[in-house]
Amino acid sequence: MINQSLDFNEIKILKNTIYDEISVNFVYNLKKLIQLEGTQKQLSQKIGISEDLLSKYKSGSTFPTIETLIYISKIYKIKLNDLLYSKLKISDLESINAFKNSFQYIFREKYFVYFLVTNKLKEGTIQEGIIEFHDDDVCFNIIHENSIIKSFKGNYKTTDKLIFFELTSVKDGICYINMIKPNVNMKKYIGGIAMMLLPSQANSKPCCQKILFSKDKINREENYEEMSSILNFNTNDNTFGNMKISINDDEDAFDFITSLAST
């Protein structure tokens, strides 16, 4: 915590210390991004600056504007705080590289999503939501009677096998969604099943459940039995150390969605 009673010179020294710290980290991360892109020229073109200015950033003689920092953060899906205060790890670079390899184009702008209501009074009811992609940003709205009752915003990261969404809301907490990475040979992601960690209806308990993605709106009443089967965890009275979504689960959800599109 910063002492509120510092005098002018002490504040100036503290600011210089902060600048030195973030400058060292930023230069390190910038060099990693240059390696990722291949050349300084390619990176400078990607972030919209001259190669000469990028060289000054790299040497530490000049520091980027806040607009440039935010832009770098957005296009590489790096949190601004991590860009300035942390050194990128190999896992971070692998995630950036996976995203960079054209994967970002697989998502459509909008998906309807469905999951089971956790409120005991409405147990078994299927809730509807909408997830929208705006460039690198993701917005997840939970809908009830055509009104938004909860809204989460954030972004996603990719690994070789998974996609991880981290979405937040000042009012409703944090929502995590984890899905099997779709086949990048597909032109656009149609839908499938994912795992979601979302606070329960009263925001008092953590809740892990399945969530169904679909490019088209699904009639919940007409398709309740099949949707309920997809969204429920079927344990047959067995005890499990963990619950997983398998490739078969995802394929079953995909087959269900495509069967609706063909009817």
From TrEMBL:
**Domain named HTH cro/C1-type: which ranges?**
30-83
* InterPro entries the record matches: Cro/C1-type_HTH, Lambda_DNA-bd_dom_sf
Q: Name one Pfam family in it.
A: HTH_3
**Name of the molecule in the record:** Helix-turn-helix transcriptional regulator
